[in-house]
Amino acid sequence: MLVSVLSAREARADSSCISAYEQTQTLRKDGKPLASKAQAAICSRESCPALLTKDCTRWLSELEAVIPTVVIDARTQAGAPRTDVRVKIDGAAVVEKFEGKPIPLEPGTHTFVVEAEGAPAVERTLVLKEGDKNKKLAVTVAAPSESVEPNSTARRPVPIGVWIFGGASVVALATSAVFAIDGLGKKSDLDACKPRCAASDVDAMSSSFTFADVALGAGVMAGAAAVYLFLTRPSVDAHESSARARARPFAAPLLRGGGGGEIGLTAAF
Question: Alpha carbon of 47 to those of 15, 18, 54, 73: distances in Å?
Answer without folding.
Answer: 11, 12, 12, 41
